[in-house]
Amino acid sequence: MRPGILKIAATLLTLGSTAASAVFVTSHLKNATAPLQPPVLTSTSTLGGTVVVGPSVQPTSQDPITSTYAS
Amino acid sequence: MRPESTVVAHDFLAMGTSCCLFAVDRPVSRLRAGELWVRRLAARLTRFSADSELSRLNAAAGEWMPISADFEAALRAALRASEMSAGLVNAGVLPALLAAGYTRSLADGPPSAALMQGQPPARLPEVLDVGRRRARVRPGAGIDLGGIAKGWMADRLCELIGPNAVVNLGGDLRAVGGGPRGQGWPVRMGDVTLMLRGHGAATSSVRRRRWAGGHHLIDPRTGLPAETGLEEVSVVAAGGFEAEVVAKTALLLGPNLAPAYCAAHAMAWWLDGRHDG
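Output (structure tokens, whole complex):
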């Protein structure tokens, strides 16, 4: 096969990949309304302090077995 | 939800505070062995006994002293806490604690002295050298492991007890496994109850262990009992040791910086105190 044909094929492959990538990224735009931070539960507690609970910890209505309260 | 498993519990007093251990599918003898482990280690780490490794290290200031593997690990944890907190969690505050009047266990009665002028302690790596099975405290310095030891011990003891357990050493806590129902262990923090599973939690507070004119939490920037505007901080983090360091650091940072600091280092947090900075 002549080298020229290989060069043309490689060029076309490169241009084709570039075009396909451009189509893909423009059709999968980042959702501008997506939250940048995970949702958190924030509340001013009845005890007067502020509680913030991140998404990796779940609040529960179960009775606690123990407390972080220092003694 | 799976059927509730049987939880065994064991409470005891150690290190001047209340401790409780919980486990699923473990004999209570395992928890009693955990209590003995706490007492053995606490006897090495306390500054209130002249025979402890810590007291002997402080007394031998300026000289290298051979130490046990456990004590070496605890001292390395203190150095790590200093590094994690940019020096705010400083186990080298013992001279300031003594000057503030905290010279004996509070179980033996409240201190009476009140320190009016502080001397900021040097950063911990400047006064504590730890080598393989040996350590040295620089002359004039002193080490108090305090809550660092409790958080570190909670992590280690939880591993020893089993894969589904909670260790709470005076508020420094580690929870592993799914708890009795497989969803985690319900633990109170502030006025919410959280399911902890593979988490640690801790509270740093100046509302307890305080006396007329002072309290136990020294601000290493001033050498005086901390007055930052926050009085109590509880956090949930990856482990008990991390939680202890984050809680203490947040309390020392005060109400303006603590929320951002906790957002970067904690999974849940509770801040309480005067909000006037």
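The CA atoms of residues 23 and 29 of chain A lie 11 Å apart.
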